What we know:
The complex is a heterodimer.
Chain A: H1 11-14, E1 23-26, H2 36-45, E2 50-53, H3 65-69, E3 73-78, H4 85-92, E4 97-100, H5 103-115, E5 119-122, E6 136-139, E7 142-148, E8 152-163, E9 168-169, H6 178-183, E10 185-196, E11 215-218
Chain B: H1 5-13, E1 20-24, E2 42-46, E3 50-53, E4 76-82, H2 85-93, E5 99-102, E6 106-108, E7 113-114, H3 129-135, E8 139-142, E9 154-155, E10 170-172, E11 176-181, E12 184-190, H4 196-201, E13 207-208
Amino acid sequence: MAGFDKVVHSYEEALAGLTDGMSMAVGGFGLCGIPENLIAQVKKMGTRDLTVFSNNCGVDGFGLGLLLQDKQISRIYASYVGENKEFERQMLEGELEVILTPQGTLAEKMRAGGAGIPAFYTATGYGTPIAEGKETREFNGRHYVLEEAINADFSLVKAWKADRYGNAIYRHTAQNFNPMAATCGKICVMEVEEIVEPGELDPAQIQTPGIYVNRLIQGTFEKRIEKRTVRQG
Amino acid sequence: MSLTREQMAMRVARELEDGYYVNLGIGMPTLVANYVPEGMEVMLQSENGILGMGPYPTEAELDADMINAGKETVTTIAGAAVFSSAASFEMIRGGHVDLTVLGAFEVDVNGDIASWMVPGKLIKGMGGAMDLVAAARNIIVMMTHADKHGNSKLLNSCTLPLTGSGCIHKVLTDLAYLEIENGAFILKERAPGISVEEIIAKTEGKLIVPDHVPEMTFA
C-alpha cells in the first residue's frame, strides 16, 4: 500500500537515514510517553554526536539514558535533568553540553518550529541567566526575551493509536511533548501501541494529524514508572 | 513555635477561593491540596498537562500513562482535562491560572526569586518554574524564613541566579506571612508565639512592621 500509508515494519526502516551529527526532537515527560523502542534502536545503531531536544534525559539504562552509555549524545536541550548518574558525570566532565531550557519555552520552541515561526517573545526567563545574550524587548510595559524555534532532523514520538495514515491519538498524560515534537522534525517517526485502519478513529479526536508523520510503526512497550505513588484503597 | 509544614499549608489554603485553578509546586506546596476548605471547589493544574489532578491511584488504578509534573503516578478527578505540554504552558504563560504556590531558596524586596540553581552544586534545571513565576499574577512563595545555617532567605537582593524578576508579592514562611510592596517586605501576620523581634532579627531585607501585627489563624 502506498499513498498516505506511513506504516513501516521494522525499527531499522523506521530510523533509516539517522546519521552521526544529526538532531532529534524526542517526546515524553520523565519516562511517560517516551518512544522507548525508537530510542533503543538509536542505541543499537550506535549513531553518535547527536543533538537532542527533550524535556528530560531518561534514567540510567532506560529511555534517553540508554544513549548516554556509549556517549551518543553531544548536546541536549532539556528543562530538568540529572535523574541519572551517568548524565551527571558526563555533564560535570564536560563531555555533554547541556542547555537548560524552561519547560514552557521548550514546548513552545518545538511548536514554533513545526508552525514555521522562527522565534517568539516570552516573559519566561527575563532577568535570569537564561536571557543572557538574547534579544529582549518591551511590550506594554513588560519585558520579553526572544527565543528561537527548534527544527530537528528527526522527530521521535510515541502515541497510543494511529491509523495507517498517521492520524494519532495519545493516552492520558503520555501526550505531553509528543504532539509538538512530532511537528518540528524533517522526518517524524512515530511508534504506537496499535495501528488501525483509516476511518476507525473519530476525525475530531485526532491530536496529531497524519500530515506530520512520515513513518509509523507498532511496538510493544514496557512503560516503566519512575515514581510509583499509590494510596490505600 | 515556628509553623510546621502542615500549618504552613493550612495558612496558604486560606488564600484559595471557590472556582480557582491552582498550580502547586513540587514538595511542600503539594500539601496545600490536603487543606482545601469544605464545600470549596479547586482544580489542580499540573504542568505536564492536567487540569483536575486527583489523589494518588490505588494499586488497581495505577497507570504508567497518568503522572503529574513531579513524575508521580496520579489520578484525575471527574471533569478533568488532559492536554499537551504546549497547551499546559499556554494556560500558564497566558495568565489563566488563578494561584501558583512554589518554594524558593531566596526572595528579595524587589520581588525577585531564586529557586533553581546553587552555583557549585549539581544543577538539575528549572523545569516549569521560570514559566510559572513569569506569568502568574498571584503567586505565593512557601519557604522557611532562614536556611539551615540560620541565614535569612528574605533579602535586599537575591544572591543566587534568578528564576524570575519582580514577580513575587506574597511570601509565607514558617515565621510569618509577608507581602512585598515598593521595595520592602511588609509584615502582615506572625506565626503563633513568634515575636515581631524574632522576625525582624531573621529578615535581612528591608522590613516594614505595622503597629499591629496579628497572629496568624488557620481556618
